[in-house]
Amino acid sequence: MSHIQFVSKYHLLRLLKKYYGLTPRQYLIDKSIEKSKEYLISRMSVTETFFAVGFESLGSFSTLFKTKIGKSPTEFQKEQLSRS
Asked: What's the whole-model pTM score?
């Protein structure tokens, strides 16, 4: 993206952070977590979910999910399925 805009990648990161409040990496992580919530609600296993949203490590996915959502993927899925 920075080559297209003719600015340094660091300047572009600062601008994105300033105007959108997120870096591109943070944005992608948030989108991945939201998509993983949809998969878990639709009864996809945690293992299938972390592969589907592009994570390479189940541990890092679970830790990040718990940090962002406040529950492990398994806890989130059980809670959502008990509501339906």
From this structure: 0.80
